[in-house]
Write a structure and sequence with these properties.
Elements lengths: L1 H20 L13 E6 L8 E4 L4 E5 L17 E2 L8 E2 L4 E5 L4 E5 L9 E4 L5 E4 L9 E4 L8 E3 L11 E4 L5 E4 L6 E5 L8 E2 L1 H5 L12 E4 L5 E5 L2 E6 L4 E5 L16 E4 L13 E5 L6 H6 L9 E6 L8 E4 L8 E4 L5 E4 L2 E4 L6 E4 L4 E3 L9 E3 L11 E5 L5 E5 L19 E5 L13 E4 L3 E4 L4 E7 L10 E7 L2 E3 L2 E3 L2 E6 L2 E6 L2 E7 L11 E8 L2 E2 L3 E5 L9 E2 L9 E11 L5 E5 L1 E2 L13 E5 L5 E10 L2 E8 L3 H7 L5 E6 L1 H23 L6 E6 L6 E5 L7 H18 L3 E5 L2 H7 L16 E10 L16 E11 L7 E5 L5 E2 L20 E5 L10 E5 L1
Parallel strand pairs: 34-44, 45-48
Antiparallel strand pairs: 1-32, 2-3, 2-37, 3-6, 4-5, 6-7, 8-9, 9-10, 10-11, 12-13, 13-14, 14-15, 16-17, 17-18, 18-19, 20-21, 21-22, 22-23, 24-25, 25-28, 26-27, 28-29, 30-31, 31-32, 33-35, 35-41, 36-39, 36-42, 37-38, 40-41, 42-43, 42-44, 46-47, 46-52, 47-51, 49-50, 49-52, 50-51, 53-54, 54-61, ...
Helix pairs in contact: 5-6
Pfam family, one: tRNA-synt_2c
Organism: Gossypium anomalum
InterPro entries: Ala-tRNA-synth_IIc_core, Ala-tRNA-synth_IIc_N, Gal_Oxase/kelch_b-propeller, Gal_Oxidase_central_sf, Glyoxal_oxidase_N, GO-like_E_set, Ig-like_fold, Ig_E-set
Amino acid sequence: MAAPSFIFSILLLLLQLLFASLPHHRTLTSAADGSWQLLQKSIGISAMHMQLLRNDRVIMFDRTDFGPSNLSLPTGKCRNDPTDTALQVDCTAHSVEYDVFANKFRALTVQTDVWCSSGAIMPNGNLFQTGGFNDGERRVRVFNPCRTCDWNEIPNGLTAKRWYASNHILPDGRQIIVGGRGQFNYEFIPKNIVANKINLPFLSETNDKGIENNLYPFVFLNVDGNLFIFANNRAILFDYVNNIVVKKYPMIPGGEPRSYPSTGSAVLLPLKNLKAAAIEAEVLVCGGAPKGSYLQSLKGTFVAALNTCARIKITDPNPEWVMETMPLARVMGDVILLPNGNVLLINGAGSGTAGWEQGRDPVLSPVLYQPNNNIGSRFEVQNPTTIPRMYHSTAALLRDGRVLVGGSNPHAFYNFTGVLFPTELSLEAFSPAYLDAKFDKLRPTIIAPKSMSGIRYRKKYTIQVVINSDKVDESSVSVTMFAPAFNTHSFSMNQRLLVLGNEKVTAVGNSMYNVEATTPKSGNLAPSGFYLLFVVHQGIPSKGIWVRWAAMELTKPTKLEFYDQMLKLQSKAILVHYFKGDDGRKALILDNTIFHPQGGGQPSDTGFICVTDSNLRFCVQDVRSKDGVVFHYGVAEDSSMENELEQGKGKEVILQVDESRRRLNSRLHSAGHLLDVCMRNVGVGHLEPGKGYHFPDGPFVEYKGTVPLNELQNKQREIEIEVNALISKGGKVYATVLPYQEAAELCGGSLPDYIHPVSGGYKAYFWTTFVSSTGNDWKSHGNSEFDTFRLLTVALFSRPVQGSNPRIIKLGDNPGCPCGGTHVSDISEILSMKVYIINLLHLKNDNLIDDPHVSECQI
């Protein structure tokens, strides 16, 4: 009986091996639709990161620190990087540009290590990619879409080291960068003028010690302008302007981790009913790995992936997660929005986690998720690929409706033999069922326009399409807009689909129809930039066309009359636009202004504006500037003035600045400049002035440098005596715009780095956000008590501008300095000044006794 027992044992072993080798797509007997096409057997690199650009080219890149790739750079071109950990002189490419419709690619040069980085498309269509590893961790890299363009790198473009972070475009056009390994904070690009590394405790709270499980957090812009941030197994709604957690969402039932390395994926489901007073937003989180899976995989035990999706209405007052079961368990999968509003789950593994060699059981079959169906009928398994897409695989929706798939390299180096899952250099395309030829008669073809630039919010547009069907269901025609995503590590950053629906479908000829649709009402729903617009008929989408939001309803900057006439309190201007913001605030935009917008540490002017020959006044409560355009925020004294302002473009208006507030602001700002003079006069001119805060609730100036601690009290007295002596002496205050060299000479021989000696000057664009701690407006004047205010000033960018020149403020015979604020006409008008305290902000080695120097002080 020994032999039969032996044969049975062998048979059982064979069966076990057979079933162990079957991937998690073995239910494919019920597979429905979709087809695969191999586009390129090898592009020379493994596509760890992927982004579709506005010219139908896809940028892909991999790490640089593993040695040579399989694609050479153009003849004679090499990357020289002495800090690279593998190859300091590298003549191979680690990034490519893929031309979708030509099915060709070309090598690009990325200089520093982009391993596990992040990015997003800026409103102008340029790809801003951020962070990475080693010498790349603080880099910002910019790619401008053109046939011959290559990467440009900005050293120290980031404030913090960013590795495994997530990016998102904001309504004002900036990118926010959230988290990263060891970074429990966020920052913006372009950088803030003020602190640009802001703590976010939620990230440390969701960090599992030794495992993390909160890298590449899922970040989505909610319809109210706040951010939904998911990490590990829970989420918050976050007000990034005020650094406030607005809401904490319940933990996903079961508490299993969904973030890297227990990598699930997530998506903001299509936004619908965009004209509703309260627009709903839902987030879907799918897959991941059970607790402990990461450590188990390091030991060679690969735990089955999670087979659940969790869905939540993030706009509900009392939101709850709704759990659904996927037909295939999946970790390291991608979730891609499709033009018809469905969702595709693709790539990934059936067991293990993210990490080198830590995944098993490739999931070869995509799954279609239909969010509008009832629970239990939403998932549909699609036809499989033959190529495993494991760790470091990517996917992106293309303009023709296909999904581009690439990458997969679960190894520390490129490894093509002797391993379970060789490094993948190929590109494939998955064609969802809607691309099947049997649906050609239902498929719309957009005839006009071929593209659109400068589309605006709340505007109706007409798209002309051809549908070669005898039975066009007008009620099933809709228009959708898709924001192309930056895809890496199972997360498509900035991915967004807007369902505009249709307001009217009109037959205008043989199989030709005009489809009318209205764009979303604000940048909270559709941040500015390039989108793909589709027309969908009975679930079958057209090919997309590229559309671009108008960056601004104005292109000309507001002329700042106070630059030359700081004492002018009344003037005339032309009304250019009556602006209604996403937050409900209203503003007047004029061709010129004497109102000083908040900036440079100085609060804004207040006052009123009235239409000539009218007794009605618009009370100006706050003034802000964006891209050189000044916004006068406030309220009309009478509701009847609303119509007058809305129809008043081109009318003359009269401006009146509040005199008491202007004088106080000017005194405080001039006092800050005079303090700089005194610092030099009392022997501490080596201290570098930093942030200035010229608000009535506690003005100060920060200085950086070293001063013996035992001299601080004496210096405080000396500074106060000197400053009041200068005030008593008086002296004319000059404000003038000068060519760069003259300005430098007037300022002691040099100008700050942010003013460029190119074309004679610079231009700084900035956006400011207004917050009152009391919720009140400025009410008092002169030396009375004021409400406490805090303002965040954000520099969008600073660059040379042809023909511009710096404005210099000069107090008496003292050296000048660049400044855009308002000032007194004579130093004596400051009246008096008292130095209350010198705060020590940081001490070397944090030791007062042993170290006799301070590195930064606040006066």
